[in-house]
Automatic annotation (TrEMBL):
Annotated ABC transporter domain residues: 3-240
Keyword set includes Transport: yes
Organism: Neobacillus kokaensis
Alphabetical keyword list: ATP-binding, Nucleotide-binding, Translocase, Transport
Gene Ontology terms for molecular function: ATP binding
Protein's recorded name: ABC transporter ATP-binding protein
ATP-binding listed as a keyword: yes
C-alpha cells in the first residue's frame, strides 16, 4: 500500500472541517476526491501534501508518517499542481519548467546541463509547448498557463502527484488534453495521482477510484461505478442527475436535470415522459 490515511481529523479554531477520514491509495493509482463546495476536499489535499498538519489521525506514505519525511525529501517525490501556482511575471515558459528541477539542485546547480536540457525538451514536446517556449508567461492564455504548470511538475519527476481542480477555467478541449497527459504520465511512470475534481464526468472517466466527501466525512469510496449513482449524488449534492453508461467506454456519466428545464416549452417530439435511470 502506497498511501494509508487513518482516522484523519482537522479542526480550524473550534470548527471541525474533516472527521475520521480513512482510505488508502495504491501505487500507480489515480484517486479522485469529489464532493460539494465546502466539503473539505482542498483541506484534505493540504493535509496529504504536508501543507497543513492534522488535528488527529495519521497519513503514512510507504509505511512512514508523512511528518517524518524531511521537507527537502518530500519536494523530490511529491508535486502539487495548484490553481495559480506559477511565478507572477518575467519568466519564459522554458524557465518556468526548469524551475521544477529546483528541489534537486544545490547552490552550485549540481545537475548535468545536457540531461536537464533533454528532459525539458521532452516535456515541452509532450505538452505541445514547443512554439511557446520563449514566450513570457504573462502573455499566455489560461489553458496554456495550465499546461506550463503541469510541465513544471513533470520536470520534478515526482512519484506522487496531487492536483487541486486542474480543469477549472479550461474549455473542454483543454480539459481532455490535460487529463489525457496526466493519465499517460500515470501509466508510463507508475505515478500515483490524487486529484480534487468538481466535474463528476471527468472524475468517472479518468480516476481508478473515487472518494466522496460531504460535511468533512467520507460518504462513500470505491470505483466510479460504485460512487456515480443517482441516490448517492442526490444525497450529497441535493440534485438528482440521470446516470448513464458512456456509450464508448461503459463508464458512468451524469446528465443533469432541473425543475425549470421541465417547464420549458420543448417540442413534443423531443420530450420523453420518463427517463430510465441506469444504476
Ligand atoms: N484556514 C481555514 N480556517 C478556517 N476555516 C477553513 C480554513 N480552510 C478551510 N476552512 C473551512 O473548511 C471548510 C472546507 O473547506 P475546503 O476548502 O476544504 O472545501 P472544498 O471542498 O475544497 O470546497 P470548494 O469545492 O468550495 O473549493 C469550509 O467550510 C471552509 O470555510
Amino acid at each position: 500500500m502506497f498511501i494509508e490515511v487513518d482516522m484523519l481529523c482537522k479542526r480550524f479554531d473550534n470548527q471541525s472541517v474533516l472527521e475520521e477520514i480513512s482510505f488508502s491509495v495504491n501505487r500507480g493509482e489515480c484517486l479522485g476526491i469529489i464532493g460539494p463546495n465546502g466539503s473539505g476536499k482542498s483541506t484534505l489535499l493540504k493535509l496529504l501534501s504536508g501543507v497543513e498538519s492534522a488535528t488527529a489521525g495519521k497519513i503514512e506514505v510507504n509505511g512512514k508518517q508523512i511528518e517524518q519525511y524531511p521537507r527537502k525529501d518530500l519536494a523530490k517525490w511529491l508535486a502539487v499542481l495548484q490553481q495559480e501556482s506559477l511565478p507572477p511575471i518575467g519568466f519564459t515558459v522554458r524557465e518556468v519548467i526548469e524551475m521544477g528541477r529546483f528541489p534537486f539542485q544545490n547552490w552550485l546547480g549540481g545537475e548535468e546541463e545536457a540531461d536537464i536540457e533533454r528532459l525539458i525538451d521532452s516535456i515541452l514536446d509532450k505538452m505541445g509547448l514547443n512554439d511557446l517556449s520563449d514566450r513570457h508567461l504573462e502573455n499566455l492564455s489560461g489553458g496554456e498557463r495550465q499546461r506550463v504548470a503541469l510541465g513544471k511538475t513533470m520536470a520534478q519527476q515526482p512519484k506522487l502527484l496531487m492536483l487541486d481542480e486542474p480543469t477549472t477555467y479550461l474549455d473542454i478541449g483543454h480539459q481532455i488534453l490535460l487529463m489525457d497527459r496526466i493519465r499517460e504520465w500515470q501509466l508510463e511512470d507508475d505515478l500515483t495521482v490524487i486529484s480534487v475534481l468538481h466535474d463528476l464526468n471527468i472524475a468517472a472517466l479518468y480516476c481508478d477510484s473515487l472518494l466522496l466527501l460531504h460535511n468533512g466525512r467520507v460518504v462513500a469510496a470505491g470505483s466510479p461505478e460504485d460512487i456515480i449513482r443517482t441516490d448517492l449524488i442526490e444525497e450529497v449534492y441535493g440534485t438528482a442527475p440521470i446516470v448513464m453508461n458512456h456509450p464508448v467506454y461503459g463508464l458512468p456519466q451524469i446528465i443533469l436535470q432541473g425543475e425549470s428545464i421541465a417547464q420549458r416549452t420543448i417540442p413534443a417530439q423531443r420530450k420523453v415522459e420518463k427517463m430510465e435511470i441506469v444504476q
